[in-house]
Amino acid sequence: MLKALVIDAGNCTGCKQCEMACSLENEGEFNAAKSRIRVFDFHTEARFVPYTCTQCDEAWCQQACPVNAITTDSLGVKVVHDNLCVGCKVCTIACPFGTVNYNASTGKVIKCDLCGGKPACADACPTGAITYQDVEQGGFDKMKVWATQSANAATYDGPNVPKGSQASGTGH
Amino acid sequence: MTACRPAEPEPASKGIALMKYVVLGAGPAGVTAAETLRSVDPNASITLIGGEPEPPYSRMALPYLIYGKIGEDGTQLRQDPGHYDQQRIRYIMGRCGGIDSRSKQLFLSTGETLPYDKLLIATGASPIRPPIPGSNLEGVENCWTLEDARNILKYADKGSPVVLVGAGFIGSIILEALYLRGCKITVVEVAPRMVARMMDETAGGMLGRWCEAKGVQVLTNTRVTGIAKGAEGGARLSVRFSNGLSEPADLAVLAVGVRSNTGFLVGSGVAVNTGIVVDEYLQTTAKDIYAAGDCCEGIDLSTGKPDMLAIQPVAVEHGRIAALNMAGRKHRHRGSLNMNVLDTMGLISSSFGLWQGAQVGETGKLIDEHAFKYMKLEFEGDKLVGAQCVGMTDHVGMLRGLIQTGFHMGEWKDKLLAAPERLREAYVSVSQRAPTTGPTAPHVKTPVVEVSHAGASGH
């Protein structure tokens, strides 16, 4: 059964232990700048949002890679292969979520790969804001519902949106 | 997904005749198209034609081959040597000599004539050879094909003097490869700055200063007036500039731009402007012929107008969309976002969309000349329409997300105009209110919470 990181930002206290755990697990050092999960801090709203790759079904990063260095594993996870990555960074601009980042010390890109099925961030999270659950639980949709409660959220009607759905913003 | 595709409204098909797809060109657009065709049509015959005697490879990977980060096998688009056989894609080599769009066949340089039901032209582009006297001498190379890269490796070693002609995007990528190979570089650019078609004066100026600090000689506002054989016992070539000076060089690399490969289409019924003309389904003016990638003028998302955006992600998008349309699954191409990322000897820069700014818009800037950091955001109304970054890579894809999705930034616009570096925060803030309809809406019904807030939907 496929599992995913479920982020319930409402439970996040901003302790950033997930960032430390991620960096230690994947880079062998405590360096939040190299964490693949990032906690955003909206202090005027007293709100924290853990943010990382959602493992897109048809991933932009994967499509854009010129040497097929990002593949999908049996868990549905998009994995960067260090032996193939040339460090061209096209995936870092192609991912519209900004969750693939360049690591200058290795000359390769890094992204969340769910730690091969045992995500360190979820283990480290003391409040259950980040859990690792069956996909059917619908973590992403839950996250969206939570997020609709945000007061400064915006609508969109960009050139990529089909005409019919424009300006249908908040309705029921 | 191997579901049967919906019946193609193909009047001529008798019984269960299999579709014959021919994909001309084996770059990212062609390979993606062939694979997409296979994924939606398990039975069709698919022929992929490469123009070079190599397995399908990525030009983008060549700089990394030049400085030894990867071997030749690392440049391939797909690593598994059995990939194309496994996909039942017939991969052949040949150049196209012409197309007869009435009898629906294609003539190859090998003498083979290939009939097709649907044809994709994905022939890419070729480097422009500037009319410089002496540019046919040994040691004057492009950096476009695998063969070019092999020649560069042959002529330029550690310590070799090299003249690079052109400091555009491609030139600048080659610059880094030659630098890391240990060459002694002079780069010559006609424009007043580096990467003039990707970034503004501030960013181009930073790149120029950075290069000079790394020991690269940067000559802007300068042309190459001629290339001659070098003196006996010295470097292979001598390259003369419009400023009257000249430099010895073991290798001169020409990178002054590319042009769509369309010469073979004369008389075919496929209309060509600067690239092949395509409609929003990537179909050409000839029936059952489609085009994708550098050879065609797809829609630029930022302007809504056709333009040749010769970048890898666009080639892949085109390849995929064209293939779906060829297979009868109508997909309208709404346009591709122009974007680039460049590593200039450790200084990383990127640009997105209308980086020159909207016609009527506002600009937020952050400049730190000493730290080589620059970020510029371009707004039209309260939407982000373009961006440039130098020395900043963290979560940079969010810029694409904001521009392409067309989020109304609401109150974040003023915050970003004052402090562009708050971009990531702004992104998470505005994007986390999910749209309830449209392509990125939830695929399952979720309860919608009533919200009322000022900067809500535009009109």
**Whole-number average pLDDT of chain B?**
91
| Secondary structure tally: strands of chain A | 8
**So, the CATH homologous superfamily of the largest domain in chain B?**
FAD/NAD(P)-binding domain
Q: Looking at the structure, what is the overall shape of chain B?
A: globular
Poorly predicted parts of chain A: 146-155, 158-172
What pattern of helices and strands is seen along the backbone of chain A? EHEEHEEHEEHEH
Enumerate the spans of chain B where pLDDT stays under 50 for 5 or more consecutive residues. 1-14, 434-446, 453-459
Tell me which CATH architecture of the largest domain in chain B applies here: 3-Layer(bba) Sandwich
Q: Widest sheet of chain B: strand order?
A: 3-2-1-7-19
Q: What's the count of strands of chain B? A: 26
The CATH class of the largest domain in chain A is identified as Alpha Beta
Side by side, the strands of the main sheet of chain A go 1-8
Any idea of the CATH topology of the largest domain in chain B?
FAD/NAD(P)-binding domain
Can you give the mean pLDDT of chain A?
82
User: Quick one: which chains have the greatest interface?
Assistant: A-B, 62 and 80 residues
